[in-house]
Design brief:
Length: 1327
């Protein structure tokens, strides 16, 4: 903070906030601290001395600049805030005790710095009382606000509060611990069992998870994971590369587009030059046709060859595909068969068993029948075989070679016999197998039945135990199912919440849709959205903020107008000073006039007005007659505001008589002030009604169009309402044109080497100049050539074509921006376009739409858009003045746009623009449609939701106007009284008669006092308005109020159900609670509604009734409305619900409209501040001139003069040199006797002229225009300074201008002759 205050920038900005930029013109804000920053601090010194801050509070320059005593500088700022608060100019700096927290290290470091510097900390708590004692005023009684009282009590009881909080926290902690211990003690016996179960569950879950992981861990899964990881890494690397490419895509694409464009243009130019010859054109066409045919045939042949070569591959691929499909189908079937294989196997086994038994039984039966025959046959066969075998054996035995194999043969024989025996045994077993199987089955059945009967008996005997076990099992299954459901619910809890929110949102949207449509609104919808009817504290604050902004906007507009007049007057005064016509004294007087308006000047101005009985002197200085005049003026301007026919007749009469420019401008300024420059809904509506209802615009446009013989005459005309219309839309015009055209205009002005010149002669000359500049040799070509000759030049023609192409492209960009701005255009401009279109269609019903659009473009384009295109810097579209080249480019675009708005193409008078007539024709259609779209707006009543009783229901806003303007308007109205109000009973004539003439304006002093703007409240003298539908509206109000009260206490799905439900004691208690809440609600949190519709929802008027009475009243009012046919019970009194829904929509629309007004006024404040800054810079140049003049008068006077040695002046100068306090512009010492003899000194209190030889006066000057006079007494041998004072040259000149003969110094102690003192000062310091 110390470094931020040292350069004085913050202090200078503070002064600028109070005195404006006309006083603080420049603030030196260099980053490095140097001596020029002291000028910023001097601004602050001049300001604090100007507002009357005592010297004891003002710090020295070195205290702040060199940081010698920063606490005193801060103490001075605190004292200044208290002084300005006493004057009503600012708020005082509050007591910051307890609001800022500092650490002990910071406090110790700060105290150490103060001790090292030898600086004492001022007492900031007593700054108000110290200031009151110094300025001899009563100390202000500081009103302790609720927040200060709360903070003070909290700080005073901080220790107690902390102790209570500690006790409370301890009690809560102890209570929580005791509760926890009790719960643990109660569940102590269940804890080991629960822990055991939990450990078992956790262990089983862990084992199952491990088993599942092991079973799921397969090689293909690992490979798949690795593949996914590789894919993830590759995608991440690709995303990083893609992001890097995207980050630089803009520059790369732009560079590529520029390169391609340049290459394409160069190639196109070369090819165009070559192909421009006719003999080449036909050859190229034939060649292209042949080439296309060849390429097509080659492509077809290539495709056919590829297909022929790929036939085997395709056939093989098809075979593979069929095989794959077939194998896949077989695998599917095999898989299905494998799933039921065990069933098939069992079925096959059963079938085989059945077939085997059947064959066996058949075989057994056949064998039984053929047994004797078979036995005989077998016997014969065996005998035959035995004989044959015996023969073979004998034969073999007879041979010697087989003897050795007898042993082996015997073994084979034994094996054969054994096998035969085994087969015989197997056959016998197979024969008796059914009997064995039956026996086995019976044995098994017996065993199973025995075991079954044993278990059945056991279960019957153990029935209680089985029942308990079943219950336990069912409980386990149920708990498991419940846990699974709860787990599923918790896992999907966010989805459930989302579904619930979506469902609620759907219901709310459906209800809001019903509310917005206004048809068949349900009771539930009314209950959910009825809170929108309440005016909250936020609405109250926003209303206050809107009113403050509106007041500031109007004040800034008036201040800018006053500054503009001051600038013009000051220019004249400075010119006269240069010509030595005016004296320097008058310049000082003018400076005091346009400087800071201090509280003393304000009091002086009020006293002057009160002395002359002016009604604008103030509420505390008015007598009965002055108050009556003030009321009449309030009624007069209210009448002018609400009845536009008076202003219409006034402007019509003034235009016919060719009134002076001064009166015309005054009337326009008063009209704009009267309607607040359209910054409020009511005033904006009334101002537009002035443009509509038989008044200015309607009268002027209607008469202008009906007096014209053709539409062309209307287009060329100049209506009288244009000046007012331009001033009215200007604050909103700036924001609109900036938002619409800023981007395209800035792009055009920042374009490099952009030239849109469309004249070939100028292009030819510029091209030759460029060639000469590049070569350095003067060319022999002729520079100034006519249009067609320049056009025949190839290079010039190519450049001309490029210029036309660029001009067409830029014009199309402007047209696109304008066509897309319809919704952003202010309603006032569109309203005037609407009135123009209605008058044109009434006068010329058969005219084409293009003619109507041309007449509308006269207002919308020429007065609204074209100035912003030609001079964008005046609308803050560009930060600085555009260069010459950009200005020419904008002029070319403006020319093309102007031709488009005329609805005609370029003719032979502009041959250079004829080639773009195709584009002109296309744009004319677009612009015509846009102009008609601009005029397609509702009337003012629909847009502002106004009605015929708007003035009776909405409080008019005050206006800010100077008494001089009031009296000047009074004079103009009196002059044209017969034309404005012909009847003697007319309201305007009655008010003018009661005012009894215009006050005298010849007194310059009185005129200056009346030049300050005052707040003029508007009152309606004839406000006795009777609404013919008042009774019906009262029924609606009472009915809606009763319905809402019933719905709050007895809500239902249908209003009829609520009405028919009997009243119970609970309903009465609920109604009493609602009434108590209303009574306990703090008053500032609710803003009472002023509109009739809003008052229907305030329950204050019925809270004294019981709910039974409220319900009876509501039913009565609903039945009365039903008798009048407004609502019916057949639809459940739906009409009253729709009326409430309509009021909800109106309240929302009002809030949106208030926000729009706030935004527009903030934008207007911004532009007005910039405009005010420009004016103040011009006035600051005047102040610089005054400062320079004062410094010039003393420049060079500080040089040493010859002084006689050993004189009083000689010793005085020597003492000053020794002490190092020599003033910059000199110091002169005189005895009181010497000045008395010269007639300069007249008297000194408590001293006689005989003692004047012992008294000395020293006059010195260390700063231009400021003189220090010191009084010393050396009668007792010691020199003591009695008094000291600083005199400013401008104060002395002002006193001389006021014809004062003498001047009192040192609080009246010394009296001097003013003229002789000025002569002496001029002689010593300026001559």
């Amino acid at each position: 903070m110390e470094e931020g205050l040292r350069n004085g920038v913050v202090l200078a900005k503070l002064v600028r906030a109070f005195q404006g930029e006309r006083v603080v013109k420049r603030i030196y804000d260099a980053p490095k601290l140097d001596f020029r920053h002291s000028d910023n601090i001097n601004y602050f010194f001049n300001f604090v001395r100007g507002v009357g801050l005592p010297e004891c509070f003002i710090f020295e320059l070195t205290d702040l600049y060199e940081k010698k005593n920063l606490p005193k500088a801060i103490y001075c700022i605190h004292a200044l805030s208290h002084l300005l608060a006493r004057r009503g100019l600012a708020e005082r700096i509050g007591n910051l005790l307890g609001r800022l927290q500092f650490s002990d290290d910071q406090l110790q470091k700060t105290q150490k710095g103060l001790n090292d510097a030898g600086v004492a900390m001022p007492n900031f708590g007593n700054v108000g009382r110290e200031l009151a004692r110094e300025i001899n005023e009563e100390p202000e009684v500081e009103v302790e606000t609720e927040e200060d009282r709360r903070d003070r009590l909290l700080l005073e009881n901080e220790a107690s509060i902390l102790a209570v909080q500690c006790f409370a926290r301890g009690f809560l902690v102890r209570k929580a611990q005791a509760t926890q211990r009790v719960r643990i003690r109660l569940a102590e016996r269940y804890v080991p069992k629960i822990q055991t179960h939990c450990r078992g569950v956790l262990a089983r879950r862990k084992i199952n998870q491990q088993r599942q992981e092991k079973s799921d861990l397969k090689p293909w899964y690992v490979v798949k994971v690795q593949a996914q990881i590789r894919g993830l890494l590759l995608r991440r690397r690709y995303a990083q590369l893609k992001a890097a490419m995207r980050s630089s895509s803009v520059s790369v694409v732009k560079l590529q587009s520029l390169a391609r464009a340049r290459i394409s243009r160069k190639t196109h130019q070369q090819v165009a030059k070559t192909f421009a010859k006719p003999e080449i054109v036909f050859s190229v066409v034939a060649l292209q046709a042949s080439a296309r045919g060849y390429l097509k045939r080659a492509a077809l042949a290539k495709q056919s060859g590829l297909l022929q070569r790929s036939v085997p591959s395709i056939s093989g691929l098809q075979a593979h595909c069929r095989g794959v499909l077939m194998r896949r189908r077989m695998r599917t079937q095999f898989a299905k068969l494998e799933d039921v294989s065990y069933i098939v196997i069992r079925m096959q086994a059963a079938v085989r068993t059945y077939l085997a038994r059947k064959r066996l039984l058949s075989l057994i039966r056949g064998l039984r029948k053929a047994t004797p025959m078979l036995v005989g046959l077998q016997a014969r066969a065996r005998a035959s075989l035995a004989r044959q075998q015996h023969r073979n054996v004998n034969k073999k035995l007879s041979e010697v070679k087989v003897v050795a194999a007898v042993g082996g043969f015997q073994a084979l024989a034994r094996a054969a016999v054994t096998r035969n025996r085994h087969r015989e045994q197997h056959k016998r077993l197979e024969f008796v197998e059914p009997d064995v199987l039956g026996l086995q089955a019976q044995a098994r059945g017996y065993l199973v039945r025995t075991e079954y009967f044993a278990w059945r008996d056991h279960l019957w005997n153990s029935q209680p135990v089985a029942t308990m076990l079943q219950a336990l099992l069912r409980g386990v299954l149920q708990r498991r199912s419940f846990r699974a459901k709860m787990k599923y619910y918790r896992d999907n809890l966010h989805k459930v919440v989302k579904i619930q929110s979506l469902f609620r949102a759907k219901e709310t949207r459906e209800q809001y849709r019903q509310l917005t449509l206004g048809t068949n609104v349900t009771v539930g919808t009314i209950k959910n959205f009825v809170h929108l009817l309440d005016d909250s504290e936020t609405d109250f604050r926003e209303e206050i903020k809107v009113e403050r902004l509106r007041k500031k906007v109007v004040e800034n507009i008036r201040e800018n107008q006053a500054l503009e007049n001051d600038v013009s007057d000051l220019d004249v005064k400075i010119a006269l000073v240069v010509q030595n016509v005016k004296s320097f004294e008058e310049l000082i007087k003018a400076r005091r006039r346009y400087g800071a308006d201090s509280a003393a000047a304000h009091a002086t101005r009020a006293s002057i007005l009160a002395a002359h009985g002016d009604p604008f002197a103030g509420p505390n200085t008015l007598d009965h007659a002055a108050k009556r005049k003030l009321e009449l003026y309030q009624q007069l301007f209210y009448l002018l505001q609400t009845r536009g026919e008076y202003l219409s007749r006034l402007f019509t009469r003034m235009s016919k008589e060719d009134t002076s420019e001064k009166n015309r401008r005054l009337s326009e300024r008063v009209v704009l002030t009267l309607f607040g420059y359209g910054q409020d809904r009511r005033e904006d509506y009334l101002f537009l009604k002035l443009f509509q209802v038989s008044s200015l615009t309607r009268l002027s446009i209607h008469e202008e169009i009906f007096s014209a013989s053709s539409i062309e005459e209307v287009v060329r005309g100049h209506p009288t309402y244009v000046n007012l219309a331009v001033h009215y839309v200007r604050p909103k015009q700036v924001a609109y044109v900036r938002e619409t055209l800023q981007s395209i205009i800035r792009e055009l002005t920042e374009a490099v080497d952009l030239d849109l010149e469309a004249d070939p002669s100028i292009i030819h000359r510029a091209r030759i100049d460029v060639e000469e500049m590049r070569s350095g040799i003067a060319t022999a070509k002729v520079k100034d050539v006519p249009f067609y000759e320049a056009l025949n030049e190839p290079d010039t023609r190519a450049e001309y074509i490029r210029h036309l192409q660029k001009l067409q492209w830029w014009t199309e960009a402007f047209v696109t921006s304008i066509l897309q701005s319809t919704k952003r255009m202010p309603y006032g401009m569109r309203f005037m376009a609407r009135e123009t279109l209605l008058s044109l269609r009434e006068k010329f019903p058969d005219a084409p739409e293009e003619a109507y659009a041309t007449c509308i473009a006269r207002l919308v384009y020429y007065r609204y858009l074209n100035p912003a295109i030609i001079t964008p810097e005046t609308f803050e579209i560009v930060p600085t003045t555009v260069d010459v080249a950009s200005r020419k480019n904008l002029a070319q675009i403006s020319k093309v746009l102007a031709q488009i708005t005329t609805g005609h193409e370029f003719g032979d008078d502009h041959p250079s623009y004829v080639p773009i007539n195709d584009y002109i024709r296309k744009s004319v259609k677009q612009m015509t449609a846009w102009m008609l779209q601009v005029a397609d707006v509702p009337d003012a009543e629909s847009y502002y939701h106004a009605h015929e009783f708007l003035d009776a229901t909405v409080q008019p806003k005050p206006i800010y106007i100077s008494p001089n303007e009031v009296y000047s308007m009074h004079a103009i109205l009196s002059r044209y009284q017969e034309d404005l109000a012909s009847s003697r009973e007319d309201t305007l004539r009655v008010i003018l008669h009661e005012l009894d003439g215009v006050p005298n304006l010849d007194n310059d002093e009185l005129k200056d006092a009346r030049d300050r703007a005052v707040t003029l409240e508007l009152t309606n003298r004839f406000a006795h308005v009777r609404d013919p539908h008042a009774d019906e509206k009262a029924l609606w109000v009472q009915g809606k109020r009763g319905v809402l009260a019933i719905l709050r206490v007895q809500p239902a799905q249908d209003l009829v159900d609520s009405l028919m439900r009997p009243v119970t004691d609970d309903d009465e208690a609920r109604w009493e609670n609602i009434v108590e809440e209303m009574e306990s609600e703090p008053m500032p949190r609710r803003m009472p509604s002023t509109a009739g519709g809003d008052s229907a929802y305030r329950l204050e008027d019925i809270r004294s009734l019981s709910f039974k009475e409220v319900k009876a009243h509501a039913i009565f009012f609903l039945l009365e409305l039903e008798k009048q046919g407004k609502i019916t019970r057949n639809d459940g009194f739906q009409g009253i619900l729709n009326a409430i829904a309509s009021d909800v929509r109106s309240k929302h629309r009002k809030r949106l409209q208030r926000q729009q007004e706030m935004d527009s006024m903030m934008e207007a404040m911004k532009h007005l501040s910039e405009r005010k800054k420009n004016f103040q810079e011009q006035i600051d140049s005047y102040h610089d001139y005054v400062e320079a003049a004062m410094a010039t008068m003393q420049r060079g006077k500080g040089k040493k003069r010859f002084v006689l040695p050993f004189t009083k002046q000689y010793f005085h100068l020597r003492d000053l040199q020794k002490s190092g306090k020599s003033p910059q512009f000199g110091s002169f010492k005189y005895s009181a006797k010497e000045l008395y003899e010269k007639g300069i000194l007249l008297s000194i209190d408590q001293y006689s002229p005989r003692q004047f030889d012992k008294i000395d006066l020293i006059i010195s000057s260390n700063k231009a225009g400021i003189f220090t006079i010191e009084l010393f007494n050396s009668s007792l041998g010691l020199t003591n300074r009695i008094a000291s004072a600083d005199l400013r040259m401008e104060d002395l000149l002002q006193s001389q201008f006021e014809n004062q003969a003498s001047l009192s110094l040192f609080n009246g102690m010394v009296k001097v002759n003013l003229s002789l003192l000025l002569y002496q000062i001029n002689k010593k310091f300026y001559v």
